[in-house]
């Protein structure tokens, strides 16, 4: 097989994947076509030349394949389509100033993937295999990693039950799939605060449920609430706890942070992980990054009433949401049944922007990676 790609990263010989059989795509895009696509990638609508698939059967992960991106062949009785045994992850690869590519905390995604799998009675995928698949795919499709600050290659691992069987029980056959999608800057026009709707009609997760797992069903169940938020003129929904309907949990598919000024100190507060929140890796990173910027950080519960009071008294100066896709999104306006308030006059706050810059600096390799978060491909 002949490869006209001069980039050594694009040479399959250099991709060391004992657990994956490589079948290069016969219809890779030309440099010109690819460059055109990734000049304005948007989010989640362009996919690279290749993907990884690894089947699970007979109680074991089988030899996987790294092959052309394309449709999967599924039986209509495929159990994930009926009963929702399906989980996913999301993390990013960033182009570095020296031309190399690094991923941000992929081991943390591999671990969380397995925690989600356990909750949905699915088999664990060895983290080393998760890493091997990601490194191999990124290496083979390295030309697809956008270069500008704020841009990245988004990696989407997923796993679902493939048994052709309508009985309700954990599957005995699964497919792990990993593909990649070039992602543009989330705010191409510059960072802009969002307006959020506090949902009283819907909850995302209840104690004992699947709130901690990154499973497909959580997202399906969130869509009606998101539509309602949009009908109320808001960008995103804010979830409250299912029991008291009082404690703030998350915003859409992102974790929330609140910035306090207390006795001259800056304190970041984020809702504590109660079992119903998704433990975000961006959230965890910001808690660890806070001290570097001279901020204190705390995980605790916060009610809607407290949120209102603390904004009214001026103790809370900023609020923002964080997650892999958008990194950090300021919250400018909060709406709910019976009240509306703005935070920081609906403007981007300095603490929010400082954290955003610090995180993006580490990810793009323009700031020192003192926490050893970046993984070289
Ligand atoms: C994925 C996700 C997050 C953010 O997690 P990151 O690891 O930071 O991307 C937050 N909330 C929900 C509901 C999510 O699914």
TrEMBL record:
<feature type="modified residue" description="N6-(pyridoxal phosphate)lysine">
    <location>
        <position position="214"/>
    </location>
</feature>
<dbReference type="InterPro" id="IPR033939">
    <property type="entry name" value="BCAT_family"/>
</dbReference>
<comment type="pathway">
    <text>Amino-acid biosynthesis; L-valine biosynthesis; L-valine from pyruvate: step 4/4.</text>
</comment>
<dbReference type="InterPro" id="IPR043132">
    <property type="entry name" value="BCAT-like_C"/>
</dbReference>
<dbReference type="InterPro" id="IPR018300">
    <property type="entry name" value="Aminotrans_IV_CS"/>
</dbReference>
<keyword id="KW-0032">Aminotransferase</keyword>
<dbReference type="InterPro" id="IPR036038">
    <property type="entry name" value="Aminotransferase-like"/>
</dbReference>
<feature type="compositionally biased region" description="Polar residues">
    <location>
        <begin position="11"/>
        <end position="25"/>
    </location>
</feature>
<dbReference type="InterPro" id="IPR005786">
    <property type="entry name" value="B_amino_transII"/>
</dbReference>
<dbReference type="InterPro" id="IPR001544">
    <property type="entry name" value="Aminotrans_IV"/>
</dbReference>
<feature type="region of interest" description="Disordered">
    <location>
        <begin position="1"/>
        <end position="25"/>
    </location>
</feature>
<dbReference type="GO" id="GO:0009098">
    <property type="term" value="P:L-leucine biosynthetic process"/>
</dbReference>
<keyword id="KW-0663">Pyridoxal phosphate</keyword>
<dbReference type="GO" id="GO:0009099">
    <property type="term" value="P:L-valine biosynthetic process"/>
</dbReference>
<dbReference type="Pfam" id="PF01063">
    <property type="entry name" value="Aminotran_4"/>
</dbReference>
<keyword id="KW-0028">Amino-acid biosynthesis</keyword>
<protein>
    <recommendedName>
        <fullName>Branched-chain-amino-acid aminotransferase</fullName>
        <ecNumber>2.6.1.42</ecNumber>
    </recommendedName>
</protein>
<dbReference type="GO" id="GO:0009097">
    <property type="term" value="P:isoleucine biosynthetic process"/>
</dbReference>
<keyword id="KW-0808">Transferase</keyword>
<dbReference type="GO" id="GO:0004084">
    <property type="term" value="F:branched-chain-amino-acid transaminase activity"/>
</dbReference>
<comment type="function">
    <text>Acts on leucine, isoleucine and valine.</text>
</comment>
<comment type="similarity">
    <text>Belongs to the class-IV pyridoxal-phosphate-dependent aminotransferase family.</text>
</comment>
<comment type="pathway">
    <text>Amino-acid biosynthesis; L-leucine biosynthesis; L-leucine from 3-methyl-2-oxobutanoate: step 4/4.</text>
</comment>
<dbReference type="InterPro" id="IPR043131">
    <property type="entry name" value="BCAT-like_N"/>
</dbReference>
<keyword id="KW-0100">Branched-chain amino acid biosynthesis</keyword>
């Amino acid at each position: 097989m002949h490869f006209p790609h001069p980039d050594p990263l694009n040479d399959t010989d250099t991709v060391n994947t004992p657990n994956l059989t490589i079948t290069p795509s016969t219809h890779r895009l030309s440099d010109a076509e690819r460059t055109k696509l990734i000049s304005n990638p948007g989010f989640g609508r362009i996919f690279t030349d290749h993907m990884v698939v690894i089947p699970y059967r007979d109680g074991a992960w089988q030899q996987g394949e790294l092959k052309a991106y394309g449709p999967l062949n599924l039986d209509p009785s495929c159990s994930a389509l009926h009963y929702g045994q399906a989980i996913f992850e999301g993390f990013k690869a960033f182009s570095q100033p020296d031309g190399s590519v690094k991923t941000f905390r992929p081991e943390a995604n591999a671990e969380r993937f397995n925690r989600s799998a356990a909750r949905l009675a699915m088999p664990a995928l060895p983290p080393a295999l998760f890493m091997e698949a990601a490194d191999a795919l990124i290496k083979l499709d390295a030309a697809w990693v956008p270069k500008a600050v704020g841009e990245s290659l988004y990696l989407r691992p997923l796993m679902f039950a493939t048994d052709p069987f309508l009985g309700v029980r954990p599957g005995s056959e699964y497919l792990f799939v990993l593909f990649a999608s070039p992602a543009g800057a989330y705010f191409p026009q510059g960072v802009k605060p969002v307006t959020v709707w506090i949902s009283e009609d819907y909850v995302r997760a209840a104690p004992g449920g699947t709130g901690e797992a990154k499973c497909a069903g959580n997202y399906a169940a969130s869509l009606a609430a998101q539509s309602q938020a949009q009908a109320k003129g808001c960008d995103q929904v804010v979830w409250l706890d299912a029991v008291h309907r009082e404690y703030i949990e998350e915003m859409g598919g992102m974790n929330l942070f609140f910035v306090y000024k207390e006795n001259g100190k800056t304190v970041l507060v984020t809702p504590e992980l109660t079992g119903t929140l998704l433990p975000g890796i961006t959230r965890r990173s910001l808690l660890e990054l806070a001290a570097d910027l001279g901020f204190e950080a705390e995980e605790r519960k916060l009610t809607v009433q407290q949120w209102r009071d603390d904004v009214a008294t001026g103790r809370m100066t900023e609020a923002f949401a964080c997650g892999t896709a958008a990194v950090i999104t300021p919250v400018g306006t909060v709406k709910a049944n019976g009240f509306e308030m703005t935070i920081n006059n609906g403007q981007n706050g300095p603490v929010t922007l400082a954290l955003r810059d610090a995180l993006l600096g580490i990810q793009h390799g323009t700031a020192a990676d003192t926490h050893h978060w970046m993984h070289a491909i």
